[in-house]
Design a protein that fits this description.
mainly alpha
Length: about 140
């Protein structure tokens, strides 16, 4: 019975099928356009975030290079300053290495500047870690 109805209705369906498809397409077009627009917006956002990530990656690499470059200098200055900070050691070190009081102050000042730089680098790395964490976290899970 179903077969007979299907065969009898086939010419009618063949004629009205394009109209049914057109009506369905017309009704879905606004939704499809909205979805396409949303996808385009998401693509632009991903590109923007990708550019920011690339910029941050460049900054992080620069900071790591700076940290690697400064580490040996800091270690050398740290040992010198430690010798000056011990009571009685400054006189012996001054005689042995022929440092003047001005040079000792210069070493202390440079040591303070390097500590400040490393502190700034550390704070910047923490900020970058927080930004990377936010970028890795899905949008619905933010606190």
């Amino acid at each position: 019975m179903k077969r007979i109805v299907r065969e009898a209705g086939q010419p009618v369906m063949a004629r009205i099928r394009p109209r049914i498809e057109q009506i369905a397409h017309d009704r879905l077009r606004p939704e499809l356009d909205a979805l396409r627009s949303s996808i385009d917006d998401l693509r632009k956002e991903v590109e923007r975030v990708d550019m920011r990530c690339n910029d941050l990656d460049g900054h992080v690499k620069w900071l790591y290079d700076e940290q690697r470059r400064l580490a040996p200098h800091l270690a050398a200055l740290d040992s010198r300053v430690a010798a000056f900070e011990r009571p009685g050691a400054a006189g012996r070190l001054t005689d042995r290495l022929e440092y003047s009081a001005d040079e000792a102050e210069e070493v202390r000042a440079e040591h303070a500047r390097i500590r400040a730089r490393l502190s700034a680098i550390s704070k910047y790395e923490e900020r970058l870690a927080r930004v990377e964490e936010k970028l890795d976290r899905p949008a619905g899970l933010e606190n």
